[in-house]
Amino acid sequence: MTSLNNTIALHRFLRLRHRHIFTRHDRIRLRYVAGTAVCAAVGLFSIFSDTGAAVFSRLYGNPAAYYAALNPAGGEGGENYTVSSLASPGLSTVIQDRVSDGMRRASLAIQKAPKRDYRDIEIGRGDTLAGVLQEAGVTGADSYQVVKALSEHYDPRGVKPGQKISVHFKPGTEDVFTKMTMQVDPIKEITVLKDGDKFATEMSEKKLVKNTYAGKAEIETSLYGSAARAGIPSAVIADMIRIYSWNIDFQRDIQPGDKMEVMYEAEETEDGEYAKFGNILYANLTVGGKDVQIYRYEMADGRVDYFQPNGFSIRKTLMKTPIDGARISSGFGLRRHPVLGYNKMHKGVDFAAPTGTPIYAAGDGILEYAGRFSSYGNYIRIRHNSQLKTAYAHMHRLGKGMKVGARVSQGDVIGYVGTTGRSTGPHLHYEVMLNNKQVNPKSVNLPTGEQLTGKEFQKFKSYINTIHQQYVSRSEGMKFAQNFFFPGSAKGLN
Q1: How far apart are CA 242 and CA 223, in angstroms?
Q2: Are residues 134 and 154 in the same domain?
Q3: 3-state secondary structure of 111
Q4: What are 100-110's pLDDT values in tens digits?
Q5: Among 1, 81, 287, 382, which one is least packed by beta carbons within 10 Å?
Q6: Domain hosting residue 63, numbered range
Q7: Does 146 lie in the same domain as 47?
């Protein structure tokens, strides 16, 4: 008996003696997990074999008849198939056939997905309009005709990266082109339509609404940076600098702690999309504790200018600095010449700036000289009146239309900073001449511009009150350099 027990001892076959389900680290041994999985699979297969035919019968009716129909070669024995005989492998074959057929139908459904009637495309860097159209499925001939039709209203070479177009096709097709639409800017949209063999172009423009916005900020490090943090657009600041440059030097006069206020116009579409900035209606710069307020005002004769509260125009006969963003590299007076190497009278003021920086006419006048002039290089001289002239030297090039006899207005671009002539680097050499003698631009006493008087001045004072009411209502509740006022992000005054 003992010998028999040893012969059939289970551990001799499965080697389970002294085996434990868990390791000393309390983790279940992998061999038991695998064994359990195998047993579960066998059990499920058994259940499936016993009940599969019944399930199939419930789903598809008489399994024997169905199997016989699938296997007509089975002959007279077809009706004698038993449930167990159908379960394996017959039922398995039928189910596989049904699954395969379902997968085939799903694949066809995916392949025959509904075709889109249009495609929205974004122009990429280096793309051409014709190339983008062809990539979208438009034929080469149609792409050529689209570009040709579009060129009647818009230069296709002006298409920029990021610009979006929409290409439309005939419903149910992918290559029968019908039309293309392109947003040129926030206002204009161009549509090219195909009708048979003909191509036509339509231009539509959105209606613009003019709104008024206000902002204010305390200047911390830079004017542009402080304005940006207060939500005042850089284009508005650039316009402010242009207006104030007749009596404020923004490179030297503005200091941290100074403040600014501005109210300006912006044109937007009816759905609130920004189109362009309009005029500055009111501005105030607090420089060194002193307010410098200006108001845009249209006079009775139709002329428009910016006036201070006392009725004097902000414009003077000459701008204080005829260039933006420059530093004074050399002042008026005796100095050691950087090229000649000896002391020589410097009869102007040098403004150091990068090559290509615009140079403005310091005042209204007529060009008396324009071209190369000795050690001055490219040189322009403007006669403002019988006594006053200004000169600009070392320019990289002259502005468009700058020739002797040309009339310029204060603020017009007359040239660009360079280093022509006797020069050690890019800068503007600026001179003011009184009775044909160079004088220090900072010391010359320049007359102010126009002054409002009489009824015009009374009308202007009434206008100032209206502007202040608008500014207060628009800027109420603002805090310095904390609120953001972008066109479209806040309610404006219509």
Answers
A1: 14
A2: yes
A3: helix
A4: 565 555 555 54
A5: 1
A6: 30-111
A7: no
